Automatic annotation (TrEMBL):
Residues 46-254 form the SsuA/THI5-like domain. SUPFAM superfamilies: Periplasmic binding protein-like II (SSF53850). Transmembrane segments: none annotated. This is Aliphatic sulfonates-binding protein. Pfam families: NMT1.
């Protein structure tokens, strides 16, 4: 087919409403860096990377792996990445402290993605017995916020325990040492601790947790990126939507890819998937929980109360233009 015939074919397909997928010129691909967090709950961005859904958007992405959303977020703040996968807890704390990195899309939410794992030999048979114990968690992260909400279910607060600042990648080894009685961190870390220390570590119950805690997993970018490169942000959102579709249509394949990435067993990954609500969106529940996170950060002494109303402040930190351009029905934020 000559060029004229090719153009006619494209025109005919367009008139019929049939989309034509254009493969970007690799030489023109925009190179970016994405700071990614670790764990099964980050399945959607993992699939973007493993299936290279960036390429269809004309993007060539390099990933930097971190053990927590806060560390991934810090990489963006340091200018090492254009995007970071993190949680609403991190944005809540950062926003209250005047950091203007914005959420461009949420892709997963869950309540049971965090757990409290406790030593069986320290007199901790119930959550109420955490009082007076030393609990490890990475400070300033979703684990820190989760622990405060978890304790509230049992009539306790952070003042009733001693916090031990331990990186997310080290909580499992920390609970095997004499200085830590329990840790608050991800579901997969809890599973690993139970397996690594049989009979010595148990997961404490989380009955009713969904009433006080929901964690939102989000893609973020600096304000300058969304202002100066809106098409790049649209491409990132499209890639997330493609990964979501793969996750929903091929759950077994998705679990295998994520298990390989996280070095977890397929069974543990599938169990983790059972706790998640996957869906690219921006809604009022996200904004509500950002406000709760901000109030917590202020009350915990991690931030000063800003002059601006918290809801107004966080609304400005949710960038809706990209998702509205790609899938407007996914934006229900008022």
């Amino acid at each position: 087919m000559d060029r004229r015939g090719f153009v006619k074919t494209l025109s005919a397909l367009s008139m019929l409403g049939i989309g034509v997928h254009r493969i970007p010129d690799a030489r023109a691909a925009q190179k970016i860096v994405v700071a990614e967090s670790q764990g099964f709950s980050w399945a959607v961005p993992y699939l973007v990377s493993s299936k290279d859904y960036w390429r269809a958007q004309g993007i060539e992405a390099t990933t930097l792996a971190f053990t927590s959303g806060r560390l991934a977020f810090d990489a963006v703040q340091a200018g090492k990445a254009q995007f970071a996968t993190t949680t609403d807890s991190v944005i809540g704390l950062a926003g209250a402290n005047g950091v203007n990195t914005v959420i461009v899309a949420e892709f997963t939410r869950l309540s049971s993605g965090m757990v409290v794992a406790a030593r069986t030999d320290r007199g901790i048979d119930t959550p109420a017995q955490l009082k007076g114990k030393r609990i490890a968690t990475p400070l300033g992260t979703s684990g820190h916020y989760f622990l405060s909400r978890y304790l509230s279910l049992w009539g306790l607060s952070l003042k009733d325990v001693t916090l031990v600042n331990v990186g997310g990648g080290d909580v499992v080894s920390a609970i095997g040492k004499n200085g830590v009685d329990a840790f608050a961190w991800g579901f997969d870390s809890g599973q690993r601790a139970v397996a690594d220390y049989p009979g010595l570590v148990r997961l404490l119950p989380d009955t009713g947790l969904e009433k006080v805690f929901v964690s939102h997993y989000v893609l973020t970018a600096p304000e300058a990126v969304v202002r100066q490169q809106p098409k790049l942000v649209e491409g990132a959102v499209r890639a997330l939507l493609t990964a979501e579709q793969f996750y929903l249509e091929h759950p077994q394949d998705a679990a295998a890819l994520v298990a390989e990435r996280t070095k977890a067993s397929l069974a543990a990954t599938q169990a983790g998937f059972g706790t998640m609500q996957v869906g690219v969106r921006l809604d009022n529940r996200l904004l509500d929980d950002l406000v709760l996170n901000g109030e917590w950060a202020i009350n915990a002494g991690l931030a000063q109360r800003p002059k601006e109303d918290l809801r107004s402040l966080y609304r400005k930190l949710v960038y809706t233009d990209a998702l509205k351009a790609v899938a407007p029905h996914r934006v229900t934020l008022s």
